[in-house]
Amino acid sequence: MNTATTPFPDVTLPPAKLLIGGEWVEAASGQTIPVINPATEQTFAHIAAGSAEDVDRAVKDAHRCFESAAWQKMRPLDRGRLLERLALLIEEEADALATLESWDNGKPYAVSRNIDLAFCMDALRYYAGWSSKMAGEYLTLSPFINDGGTYRAYTERRPVGVVAGITPWNFPLGQAIQKIAPAIAFGCTIVLKPSEETSLTTLRLGELIQKAGFPAGAVNIVTGYGDPVGTSLVDHPLVRKITFTGSTLTGQRILQAAAPQMKRVTLELGGKSPTVVLADADMDQAIPGAAMAIFANSGQICTAGSRLFVEAPVYDRVVEGIAEFAATLPIGHAFEQNVALGPLVSARQLEKVSEMVQGGIDSGAEVVTGGRKAGTQGYFYEPTLLQNVGRDAAVMREEIFGPVVIANRLDAISDLKAAANDTEYGLGASIWTRDLNKAHVLAGQIDSGTVWINTHNVLDTAMPFGGVKMSGIGREFGTEAINAFTEPKAVCMRLDPTGLE
Ligand code: NAD
Questions:
Q1: pLDDT band at residue 154, thresholds of 50, 70 and 90?
Q2: Gap from CA of 270 to ligand 1 centroid (Å)
Q3: What are the tens digits of pLDDT across the range 47-90?
Q4: Which residue's CA is minimally distant from atom 22 of ligand 1?
Q5: What is the tens place of the pLDDT at every residue in 28-44?
Q6: Hey, which residues are catalytic here?
Q7: How many whole angstroms from 267 Cα to the centroid of ligand 1?
Q8: pLDDT of residue 345
Q9: CA atoms of 485 and 462, how far apart (whole Å)
């Protein structure tokens, strides 16, 4: 690890302002929040600290835009063209955006460039195509009021209105696009609140949105803390829909706050996803696959495979294999050559991960590898594998959101269903096996929004994504996205054939 001597590339910083009604404005409070590089622990930028007053202005501008004749009459294809133009602008700036993301979040530059940015462009193009495909249904009725009339009906999909998009810090630009692209494609306007930890690429996105020619107020960005910015957005009477990605605790708060005004919500929350390795799996794939299921993005992925279940005959081999693999992963800052694991996003996150692992050790867990902060500068944590952990230990039950996996021996495959589902979460899961029958039977037994077979964390905008149980409500991506941002309206008509028959 070499954080001191390798220089970081130059980076152009976006304005420490808010994008409201098409203008960059200072926060009403005049206050800012420091932005810290997680590898150096140094402040290198500031963002504006928004308030309820800023949120009110942004929501009103989003509402004005939504109600405007220009927005209402904009052809769906032309909303799609806005998204296409934005994708092109991002493509032109992909290197710079990836650099900014890595400065801000700390993730390896190659990850920012090849995963985050690739996702952003794909998602924009995917939703651009959807804008012209909002279709209702034509229905033939048999109404119980049998009055001799003939009834016909159709449904149309109407945009919900002003959307509040609230995002976390693990895939900052990707999450912003994940909220903005479907909102615009389906005719909504949006106020976006990025995480206070990682707002920079979203702000730069705001500049590109202006350059792409989005109407003023269609996309607004208010940076700042969850309280007051997120809370005021959720409470604002003109916000009709909240699309949130973040922790389960915040999701619960949002759901409660949304209830009095019956707001629509999509909640993409936490997870404690199982990775299952069966004895017949191809070990050359399963061992690195299970390792990267948890260690990718330093474990800061909601679907990270943080509970490992291994069939008894191969348990020792898989556990040793993952520990050896972990030891080969270069830890370092984002711009080091071949770095695999960057720092955790913040001092707070490092403290949380450290405390949870220590709690596990104190309650009897055995450390197979890792279990410590890495280096002396920056929020780095070693890839960690624990075993012999009790089923009630916090480290087994709670989301850690760091590079920490708990290994569990599976003595009988019939135990898997109960063991894998012994969690309040249900976001992702993976099964590693060569046996197609076992793969599909077990996939059906695991309660989660996604099950991967012989892979983990493959996301695609064509595939619905979201969780069951405490992992959330609703789905993003795929055909499900249309339901998330629109309401069906049924129109029913009585035809009178008198004189025409
Ligand atoms: P967080 O819940 O602390 O914050 C997420 C966002 O909510 C931030 O922008 C924050 O400022 C805002 N916020 C905080 N309190 C709020 C409130 N009361 N009202 C409105 N907004 C509020 O989450 P985080 O620490 O930024 O992100 C990590 C979490 O996100 C993990 O639990 C992870 O599993 C989850 N996550 C889920 C998915 C998914 O798709 N399911 C994807 C990525 C991350």
A1: very high
A2: 9
A3: 999 999 999 999 999 999 999 999 999 999 999 999 999 999 99
A4: 226
A5: 999 999 999 999 999 99
A6: 268, 302
A7: 10
A8: 98
A9: 16
Q: Are the beta carbons of 245 and 202 closer than 8 angstroms?
A: no
Residue 427 CA, closest ligand 1 atom number: 41
Amino acid at 18: L
The most distant pair of C-alpha atoms in the chain lies apart, rounded to whole Å, by 90
Nearest residue to 457 via CA among 183, 174, 83? 174
pLDDT tens per residue, range 230-270: 999 999 999 999 999 999 999 999 999 999 999 999 999 99
Average pLDDT over residues 293-298: 98
401: Cβ below 6 Å to ligand 1? Answer: yes
The CATH label, of 3.40.309.10, 3.40.50.300, 3.90.226.10, 3.30.420.40, for the domain at 274-453 is 3.40.309.10
- Report which DSSP code applies to 381: B
Q: For the domain covering 18-269+470-488, report its CATH number.
A: 3.40.605.10
Domain extents in the chain: 18-269+470-488, 274-453
* Helix/strand/coil for 418: helix
CA–centroid distance, 20 to ligand 1, in Å, is 23
